[in-house]
């Protein structure tokens, strides 16, 4: 049986999909950075809409259903009611991985004349890595969901600009807008660049750029109204950006070993770009596609462009990821010129690192799950009631995990299970997504001291009832630095401590 036969290709894709999905369901708890916050706020949003205590009294829900970056939350809310919110997170995670993997594989097959072949077998593990990006393990579910739609847009724009395909493009734009605004904006640029480049090289008509018009109008309206995508710009770190173009930082999430896969992926990208440059020198720019030019511009912009736009962060690494996706067809074509043994060796390395990546995820999940059990015991001993107010003040958030801050929102996981009210809920504090405080709550400010942390009260319009429970490290004790508060005895469990803070009458 040939290595690039259909049964082999199907088997390779099935094994890669399994390697990408096993850690999602084999982990005792899904360890992501922002994931627990998103799931907790999906519970809060559902409770507020249903006017359930204790959340409806203090928090509100933004009912603007047409704003971008809301898809993951609505999926979590809908699924959470049916299967439970923690299971809903795994389902959303799985949906993001499967849809992204399917979209990338479709791109690879399409770019190889619809036949697959050796390049598809070699790139299937790379597609698995691109479906297991840093973003999905960070809990950036909306952006992760948008990647499959971006791949779909690439497929549509490769086709002839028929009325049916133009309509398909608008449907993809609607999905991109509802999932992630940055991907929507980049997609609008792609839809403008591809037909414009064809027209410049006399392979298409200028009228075809109209496919991007509705998206560009919506983009300008959103930016002009001060909505998503607006605000002050913070420039990207050029050194970090340059390093990212070498190590493929958008797939480095669990261990330094992930960089092996990132380097191989970026080496393939630069090999493909070098081949296209040589072809352009021989045959002229007409042999280069608009998508290839646009992909290269995204990689450049990821180094010299912004890192943050208003509240939207991590712009540079997102652009690098989208640039690589845009160049996947060129990479597939370039790898078709390599020897089968070289392709097989690189595919083997990518698959082995993907499998190790999954094993490390499960290992980290077991660590976090043991700590969650410690916290459950700690809160039970402290007799923390359902509906209590909780504040987290950790000095260290990763605790040995390589890149994903598995402890950053660990308290949100407890709050989800026991209906606590999280005071330091960043989504509610900054009205990110759809949950926000009705009015400003009491706040506590911490300052590091020789003995641990001093605590001060910052009065708000909403008082926490009776007591605020502060979760912190056991080696950082709390001391009052404000006569308006008093601190009860601290309970400890391993590296964690729980201290009740009361506001004096």
Protein described:
- The model has no long low-confidence stretch (mean pLDDT 90).
- It contains 19 helices and 13 strands.
- With 505 residues, the chain is α/β, with parallel strands linked by helices.
- Helix 1 (6-26) packs antiparallel against helix 5 (85-111) and helix 2 (35-49) crosses helix 5.
- 58% of the residues lie in helices and 11% in strands.
- Strands 4, 5, 9, 11, 12 and 13 form a six-stranded mixed sheet that branches.
- The longest helix has 42 residues, at 340-381.
- The chain has helices at residues 6-26, 35-49, 55-58, 71-83, 85-111, 118-131, 134-138, 141-158, 163-179, 181-200, 213-224, 238-247, 258-283, 290-304, 315-326, 328-335, 340-381, 410-418, 426-429; strands at 59-61, 233-235, 306-309, 389-393, 421-422, 435-437, 443-448, 452-458, 467-473, 477-480, 485-487, 491-493, 496-503.
The helix content is 55-70%
Number of helices: 19
The biggest beta sheet reads: 6 strands, mixed
Overall pLDDT level: 90
Rounded to the nearest angstrom, the radius of gyration is: 25 Å
User: Which segments are poorly predicted (pLDDT under 50) over 5 or more consecutive residues?
Assistant: none
Q: How does the overall form come out from the CA principal axes?
A: globular
N→C terminal distance: 80 Å
How large a portion of the residues is in β-strands, by DSSP E? 5-15%
Structural class: alpha/beta
- Please tally the β strands and state the result: 13
């Amino acid at each position: 049986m040939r290595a690039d036969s259909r049964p082999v290709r199907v088997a390779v894709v099935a094994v890669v999909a399994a390697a990408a999905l096993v850690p999602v369901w084999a982990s005792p708890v899904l360890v992501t950075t922002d994931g627990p916050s998103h799931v907790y706020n999906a519970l809060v949003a559902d409770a507020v809409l249903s006017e359930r205590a204790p959340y409806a009294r203090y928090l509100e829900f933004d009912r603007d259903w047409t704003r971008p970056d809301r898809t993951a939350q609505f999926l979590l809310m809908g699924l959470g009611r049916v299967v439970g919110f923690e299971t809903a997170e795994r389902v959303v995670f799985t949906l993001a991985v499967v849809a992204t993997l399917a979209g990338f594989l479709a791109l690879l097959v399409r770019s190889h004349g619809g036949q697959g072949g050796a390049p598809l077998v070699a790139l299937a593990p790379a597609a698995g890595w691109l479906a297991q990006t840093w973003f999905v393990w960070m809990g950036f579910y909306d952006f992760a969901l948008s990647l499959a739609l971006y791949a779909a847009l690439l497929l549509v724009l490769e086709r002839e600009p028929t009325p049916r395909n133009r309509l398909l493009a608008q449907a993809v734009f609607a999905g991109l807008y509802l999932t992630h605004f940055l991907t929507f904006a980049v997609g609008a640029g792609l839809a403008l660049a591809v037909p414009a480049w064809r027209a410049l090289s006399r392979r298409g008509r200028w009228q075809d750029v109209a496919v991007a018009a509705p998206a560009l109008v919506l983009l300008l309206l959103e930016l002009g109204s001060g909505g998503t995508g607006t605000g002050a710009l913070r420039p990207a770190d050029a050194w970090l950006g340059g390093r990212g173009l070498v190590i493929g930082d958008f797939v480095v999430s669990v261990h330094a070993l992930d960089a092996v896969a990132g380097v191989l992926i970026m080496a393939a990208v630069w090999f493909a770009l070098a081949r296209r440059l040589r072809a352009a020198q021989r045959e002229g720019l007409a042999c280069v596609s608009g998508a290839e030019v646009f992909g290269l511009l995204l990689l450049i912009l990821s180094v010299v462009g912004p890192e943050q736009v208003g509240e939207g962060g991590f712009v540079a690494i997102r652009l690098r990821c989208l640039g690589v996706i845009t160049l996947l067809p060129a990479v597939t074509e370039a790898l078709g010129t390599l020897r089968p043994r070289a392709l097989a060796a690189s595919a083997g390395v990518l698959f082995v690192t993907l499998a190790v990546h999954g094993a490390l995820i499960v290992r980290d999940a077991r660590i976090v799950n043991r700590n969650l059990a410690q916290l459950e015991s700690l809160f039970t001993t402290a007799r923390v009631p359902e509906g209590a107010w909780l504040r987290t003040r950790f000095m260290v958030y990763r605790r040995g995990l390589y890149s994903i801050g598995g402890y950053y929102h660990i308290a949100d996981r407890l709050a989800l299970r026991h209906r606590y009210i999280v005071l330091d809920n960043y989504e509610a504090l900054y009205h990110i997504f759809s949950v926000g405080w009705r009015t400003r709550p009491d706040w506590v400010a911490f300052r590091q001291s020789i003995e641990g942390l001093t605590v001060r009260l910052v009065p708000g319009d909403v008082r926490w009832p009776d007591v605020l429970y502060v979760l912190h490290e056991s080696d950082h004790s709390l001391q009052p630095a404000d006569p308006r508060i008093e601190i009860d005895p601290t309970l400890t469990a391993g590296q964690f401590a729980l201290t009740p803070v009361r506001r004096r009458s």
